[in-house]
Amino acid sequence: MQSFAYLRFVNLQLGGMSVEMTMLALAILLGFVQLFLAAHFVTAERGLGWNVGARDNTEPLGGRLAGRLDRAFQNFKETFPFFAAAVILATVLGRHNWATLWGSQLYLAARILYVPLYAAGIPVIRTLVWASASAGILLVVAALFMT
User: Fold this and answer.
1) Exposure check for the chain: N or C terminus, fewer CB within 10 A?
2) Residues 84, 60: Cα–Cα separation, whole Å
3) Average per-residue pLDDT in the chain?
4) Do the Cβ atoms of 111 and 84 come closer than 8 Å?
């Protein structure tokens, strides 16, 4: 890890957690932010009756912003389990190195950036940011195999 000391992210540590576990905790909070954003805009479009109802025969969303925020949240839910599993496994195995530091921070930074890009409907850059988040996960996974 010393050879990569000059390649630092913020290396944020909160509550006595490692950088990787801090990124995991912040990713959980990001998930809730996305949940509440999507729920707010979807409910604004469909109404409170839909929100508290059984949601049988739900029509597709008509509004762009509500649909985009909902899809961004669905996408988060697709990648988060892989990230969480990788960080937890790295922590349990005691694998903390440049790859776990960079990977965990890259994942969170890219996922934060992804939300406004998706909401604004920016296609190519959004995809590159998604790929960066995925690369972050793969870095953490790669660290599991490093000795």
Assistant:
1) C
2) 30
3) 89
4) no
- Alpha carbon distance 40, 93 (integer Å): 40
Shortest CA distance to 34 belongs to which of 116, 103, 107?
Answer: 116
Q: How many residues does the chain have?
A: 147
pTM for this entry: 0.88
Residue 52 has pLDDT above 60, yes or no: yes
Question: CATH 1.20.120.550: does it fit domain 18-144?
Answer: yes
Q: Among candidates 27, 20, 21, which has minimal Cα distance to 77?
A: 27
Q: What is the pLDDT of residue 50?
A: 66
